[in-house]
Amino acid sequence: MKIRRFFGKDMREALSQVKAELGSDAVIMSNRKVADGIELVAAYDKEPEAKLSVKKPAATKRETAVPSLSEIIGDDGPDSLKALLEKQHGEQSRQASDTSAQSKNAKHANDIAQHLDFSNAFVEESNTESKGGFETKEQHQAASLTSGEHSSSDELTNIKEELASLRSVLQHQVADLMEAKQRRKQPVHHYLTKRLVAMGLSENLASQLINYTPSHYNEREAWIYLLNLLANRINVTGNDILTQKGAVALVGPTGTGKTTTVAKLAARYAQKYGAESVAMITIDTYRIAAFEQLATYGKIIGCTVRKAQSSEELADLLFQLRHKRLILIDTAGFSQRDSRLIKQIKQFDNGQMQPVKKYLVAQANTQYATLERIIAAYEETNLDGCIFTKLDECYSLGEIISAAITHQLPVSYVTDGQKVPEDIKVAEAKSIVSAAAKLYKKYGLNHTSSNDVVNSARAV
Predict the structure, then answer these.
(1) What b/e sequence results for 247-267 when a residue is b if at least 16 CB atoms lie within 10 Å of its CB, and e otherwise?
(2) pTM of the predicted protein model
């Protein structure tokens, strides 16, 4: 099927040209107004047979009248564009029974849609034919452009997703290549990095430590050097709480052992300076029997125990107990994602009470990612140090070491049991690192872990 355009001063003249050159089998595709008249787009299946043309003498002025449409297309032909299209539609309906003709027409329609993008115009003309009107060429072009924009946007999105996926794959492959290169270049360093990570340290901290390790050391020398370097990176405060005066608050998530730790510190302080020199205050109004538990410890130790339900009450109690050498404050335990945590922290910064030092109490067996978020939640409180509890329940200590070094958080005390006041010790960097290495040797090494035979099919 081929497409041709015809121009005329009016519709009759344009139709006359179509009839004269293409015959009655031509299909009108679209029409629109142009500056000089009317433009018709017509389609036909094959070239019309050559018509004999006989030169006629020049017509006189009387013979130059414009012939009518009926004179051009015959007396019985349609005299309007709508009638012409209706006639063509009727002829096509009569040929619907011919299977080969239908296949041919379908093929022609596909050719038009693929090469000339006229399929949308043809469908719209068929829908508006019963209304006696035709959409303009500009409307077809606008619809085509809109559809093209959506298609281009979808294709661009797919391309971006594919590029992002390829980038991730390439980064992974490059990382593997770099790791393989490093393993070949410095096999001892690579092995020691794996050991540090298995001990519980973060990969970032392990890489930093390895970079300072001399390359000529053997495995044993490098491992001892790394442990000493790790111990030097840990900041410890010594026995600061029990050697200083003032008010100290223990903060942290629920279940970390804050109340028991307060009792242990109070008992140690009472042993050193006397029970009348220390007092305990609880602001935990959420946990059942929180005050009763602390009061029981106070009776055993022989020290004063009070309860505050607001920041104003806490300020009043601190003023009343100002003659005490040490005041230990037990706080409520909240999750780092609990909004009440912020409200509790603000109680110490209202400007109405004496300065209060704040120490974070965290379990030593907490995951590294959780420790990161806990410390971040209390960063605005200007922590003076931290106390790690429940070391007796741990299988690795690298997590708390990494958290303390990464956030430059001083370590004050560690606890390893429930006994008051025996199970609390002043934090020592070498002791913490040595305990971490022993736990790794006992539970982390392959030859010390259980190697139970597991059915591979069941594992999958």
Answers:
(1) bbbbbbbeebbbbbbbbbbbb
(2) 0.57
